[in-house]
Please model this.
Amino acid sequence: MENLDTTFAALAHATRRSILSRLMQGESRLSDLAKPFNMSQTAVSKHVRVLSDAGLLTIEKRGRTRHCRLNAEPMKQATDWLIDYQAFWTQQFDNLAQHLADERE
Model:
């Protein structure tokens, strides 16, 4: 569960979700990740560090640049956990639909 807490905490911020979305297109230099945001590269680096600590991306230093790459495995674990709740809610809605149909009869 600790990994899920870390994953969800990292995903809780819109900037971090946006960074991950950009990394779905492929590896990127940290400086390129920072360009679309109205914040300093230092602030973006802090977001990248949170994502890295959560295992959602990897950082590789090449010379003077840092390259970031998406690691979606923690999101798969979160999705697997959420799927159980999807099944629960699907059953709840099916039960409600059946209840409403029975009342109409």
User: Anything to note?
Assistant: The first helix runs from residue 2 to 11. The chain has a mean pLDDT of 92.
